[in-house]
Amino acid sequence: MGKRKRKKGLAAAVLEYLPLHVLYLTFRSLPLKSAINLSNCIAGLAFRFDCKHRRRAVQHLLHAGITEDSEQAEAIALRSYQQFSMLVVELCKFDQIVPLGSISERISASALHPEFQDEIDEALKKPLILVSAHYGNWELAGIFYHKRYKHDIISVMRPFQNPFLSKLVQKLRQAEGHQSVDKNGSIRVLLKSLKQGKSIAILADQHASSGEGVESLFFGQPCRTHFSPALLHLKTGIPILVSVTRRVDNNFNFEYVLDRPISYTPTGNKEADIKAVTQLYTSSLERLIQQQPEQWLWSHRRWLNINRKSARQT
Q1: Does residue 214 form part of some domain?
Q2: Counted domains in the chain
Q3: How far is CA 16 from CA 74, 82, 226, in A?
Q4: Is residue 265 part of a domain?
């Protein structure tokens, strides 16, 4: 398992949290359009002055083959910053914008490939292992899934180093029928939840440690992907359904896009089976992200052969 990061000291945590809390209150007080305009300005400033992550995002877009043009990659990276800033506004203002009971009015559901719509609809009648990405507004997916498909859902949350920030995000995430658990030691909790007839949701698009992931290909480049969805699928036989919650405008409207359910027949070689299933949902995420790449977080160090010490040594 990956090492736990140390929590910040009290003074450092307070100093980091206070400006974020002021921003939270500011977004809460503004109309949605004004809050988004402000967030876009902040994203533009961050993109301009955060040279490290701007450069990394551009490099990753080129590395993944999304574009071969540096200027176009920079434009996509800027939009990615803006999309993330919109997510922050949407989280801060969620309860002001839409009552939970009417969340389905703001989110439509569709199949990535329409020919698999019937297969997807059939799978959604039962509990699932849901795999998604830091794409669009991923925080809405669990709430929408529970309201639309009537299954309780357990999601995995990586704890923040700042306890005040962690508490705020946990408050924004929790909703009826949707709970979060700490990623550390979560496999037993997730297995128990599946046996109780609940669905589980895991974000599987970021780099995993050697103890938590297996090597796979993402946009044709080597990476290490979390294998917990594969392990749970092989243990239970419950299908994996890969989806993203895509933003369709700047007025809190989204599309829940689903790929074909994954049901894998084990070969008896556990290591090979885990790797095969992990690649299946990694490729599925790639297909979904590729449609509108600006909605994914490109500054994250996803790959093994770029922006890592091992890559620089080869």
Answers
A1: yes
A2: 1
A3: 28, 21, 29
A4: yes
The pair of structure tokens assigned to 313 is: 């040594």
What is the arrangement of strands in the sheet containing 107-111, beginning at the earlier edge strand?
A: 107-111, 254-258, 240-247, 129-132, 199-203, 153-157, 178-182
> For residue 249, which of 148, 147, 107 has the smallest C-alpha distance?
107
The closest of 54, 115, 117 to 81, measured between CA atoms, is 54
For 176-189, write each residue's pLDDT tens digit.
Answer: 667 888 777 788 99
Q: How far apart are the first and last CA of the chain?
A: 26
> 217-258 pLDDT, tens per residue?
999 999 999 999 999 999 999 999 999 999 999 999 999 999
2, part of any domain:
no
Query: What's the CA gap between 226 and 215, in Å, rounded?
Result: 9
Asked, for residue 227, whether it belongs to a domain, the answer is yes
The H-or-E segment that residue 89 falls in is: helix 70-97
- Residue 261: how many CB atoms within 10 A of its CB? 19
| DSSP 3-state of 234 | helix
Instruction: State the residue range of the domain holding 188.
Output: 10-313
